[in-house]
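The data are set out underneath:

___
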Amino acid sequence: MVTRNRQIADAVAAGAPGEIVFFEPAAPVYALGRRAQEPAGQAAIAASLAVCAARQIAIVPVDRGGLGTLHAPGQIVAFLAVPCSRWQARQLCAELLHGIAELAGACGVDARRDLADDVGVWRAEGKLASLGLRLRADVAQHGVAINIAVDPRLANGLVLCGKPWIAFANLTEPGPPEPADLAGWSEQIAAQWRLRPRPSDAAEIR
């Protein structure tokens, strides 16, 4: 799916309409951003890499920034490719996080967004959604991951997003929420950034 996202981004850079793709990972993956592929970054999450190896969780390098992020079944990942100049990037990030916080609120979950320190969407129990973008040739790609009902045991022992104090949280904690209107949220984001929703042709990050 990462490869497909890159192909779509290249097409958008050449003038094609922006697109957004939603999918649920078929198996656990620990995605390593560019910082995690450097010696210092690998040292910072060495324990996570060992845990992944012991649990046979796939480790996949990606070309966005950041360190390590867990993707797993029960999570909704939105990959986008949208024309976006450098001065628009913060606006795009803010709108993505705001939209997820609103989505959580509609499900009866009190959530807040953070665009400064611990970037993402949070509830009292921990991090509900992660954001990771790459800006290249005035196109923003990659996207967001929303934890709906991920097995929390998968995150035990992992340094999520490179920060050991981050706790993992689901939209369904402590019980089933109101149904999440993912279609409405995706339509809102797509309309705001003139994105064309595309059916997912893959169920995993690769």
Q: What stands out?
A: Residues 84 and 92 are 8 Å apart (CA to CA). Residues 2-197 form a domain with the BirA Bifunctional Protein; domain 2 fold (CATH 3.30.930.10).
